[in-house]
Backbone:
């Protein structure tokens, strides 16, 4: 798959198992995510167009592995378990959180990643990012300094991705306001800072800061 993706794209596609992924995150092992994956395969849809994101799914959060994730992986902190399914194939922008994000690849997909320290004046310039392929069944941790957004599909059927985050992340933010901290311009939802591409209308309409500069590149498969 990696060899094919590199043939059809004009950007290098790495694997999350490559050393290049180490500054962005790590492979997560030692947790039984099988019931989460089973639920995702049988009970969650892939929309005909675009993406669907649900931050917290009660059926997933009732599973025993949630307690293990909270007590060990997040050091006793509460988490939410949700998912992002869809058919995205373009960069669109970046987000980041204060706290790691866990993704479980129910299907294979690609991720476009950057670093928060590559943001200059609330702008990120296309060309600094790296693209990673995540094989089906792989669980990864993306560190809080890692810029990311929706997965990109590698098959016609789209993608399915489990998303685990600190509880409350990506939910509506009350009393949102800006102050003298330049980062406050990027705050869009609870624990969610966003830089959008000007062509990503759904994010722009939500009030996301336009700061991804360059083409809104499409990834092919």
Residues:
């Amino acid at each position: 798959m990696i060899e094919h993706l590199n043939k059809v794209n004009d950007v290098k596609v790495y694997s999350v198992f490559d050393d290049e992924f180490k500054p962005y995150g790590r492979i997560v092992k030692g947790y039984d995510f099988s019931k989460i994956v089973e639920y995702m395969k049988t009970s969650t849809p892939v929309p005909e167009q675009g993406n669907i994101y649900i931050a917290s799914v009660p059926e997933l959060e009732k599973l025993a592995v949630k307690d293990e994730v909270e007590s060990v992986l997040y050091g006793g902190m509460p988490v939410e378990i949700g998912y992002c399914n869809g058919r995205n194939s373009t960069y669109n922008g970046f987000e980041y959180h204060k706290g790691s994000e866990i993704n479980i690849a129910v299907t294979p997909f690609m991720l476009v990643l950057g670093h928060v320290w590559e943001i200059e004046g609330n702008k990120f310039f296309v060309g600094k990012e790296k693209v990673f392929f995540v094989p089906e069944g792989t669980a990864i941790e993306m560190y809080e300094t890692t810029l990311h957004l929706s997965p990109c599909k590698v098959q016609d059927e789209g993608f399915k991705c489990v998303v685990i985050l600190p509880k409350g992340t990506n939910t509506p933010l009350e009393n949102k306001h800006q102050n003298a901290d330049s980062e406050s311009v990027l705050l869009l939802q609870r624990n969610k800072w966003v830089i959008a591409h000007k062509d990503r209308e759904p994010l722009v309409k939500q009030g996301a800061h336009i700061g991804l500069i360059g083409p809104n590149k499409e990834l092919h498969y």
User: Anything to note?
Assistant: The first helix runs from residue 2 to 8.
